[in-house]
UniProtKB/TrEMBL annotation:
Pfam family, one: RibD_C
Protein name stated in the entry: Dihydrofolate reductase family protein
Annotated source species: Streptomyces flavotricini
Coiled coil start-end: none
Gene3D superfamilies given in the database record: Dihydrofolate Reductase, subunit A
Domain Bacterial bifunctional deaminase-reductase C-terminal stretches: 2-180
The organism's place on the tree of life at top rank: Bacteria
Organism placement in taxonomy: Bacteria, Bacillati, Actinomycetota, Actinomycetes, Kitasatosporales
InterPro entries tied to this protein: DHFR-like_dom_sf, RibDG_C, Riboflavin_Biosynth_HTPR
């Protein structure tokens, strides 16, 4: 059985995007890029909701070719482009870059993928992750908490039907002030 990990950058007050889907508050450092790049390398499959997919696919396929791209950004772009991905959407017609499109029941497909043999899967996108959280499918949470308050927007965590008890696995502070924390779901 695969492990399902939900991780994203978020604000100290718990938002992955400020109102209007503004992510301008998130200015990643080389250390943060390296952290996420290392996570990509350790991931077998990434699962995306439509909005996050559109954000990622609008930049990272050529992120290593952008003027001023740092070595950490270039490495992240190459790993992202080459890894296997699944996008869950009923409104997108096609996807590229080692990606498969799923238009049906996301929770059922995530449960099916999780039951397969293989390495860890990452899930990204608030709406998709919320459905997986409510279904009890997420095994680990990875938070890269930025020292900024935005007061509203898209929350990292959704409303849940039941509590989810967690065990702290790791906490680390990056030189840029971002605090990395990892928690596993206590089952």
């Amino acid at each position: 059985m695969r492990k399902l990990i939900y991780g994203m950058n978020l604000t100290l007050d718990g938002y992955i995007a400020a109102p209007g889907d503004d992510i301008g508050w998130s200015v990643p450092s080389d250390e943060l890029f390296q952290f996420w790049s290392d996570r990509l390398q350790a991931t077998d499959l990434s699962l995306y909701g439509r909005k996050l997919w559109q954000t990622m696919s609008s930049y990272w396929p050529t992120g290593d070719q952008q003027p001023g791209a740092t070595p950490a950004e270039a490495e992240f772009a190459r790993r992202w482009r080459d890894m296997s991905k699944v996008v869950f959407s009923s409104t997108i017609g096609e996807v590229d870059w080692n990606t498969r499109l799923v238009t049906g029941d996301a929770v059922a497909e995530i449960a099916r993928l999780k039951a397969e043999d293989g390495g860890p899967m990452d899930i990204g996108g608030a709406t998709l992750a919320a459905a997986a959280m409510r279904a009890g499918l997420i095994d680990e949470y990875v938070l890269a908490t930025a020292p900024v308050l935005v007061g509203g927007g898209t929350p990292f965590f959704t409303a849940l039907d039941d509590w989810v008890n967690l065990n702290l696995l790791e906490t680390r502070t990056l030189p840029c002030g971002v605090i990395l924390t990892r928690y596993e779901t206590r089952r």
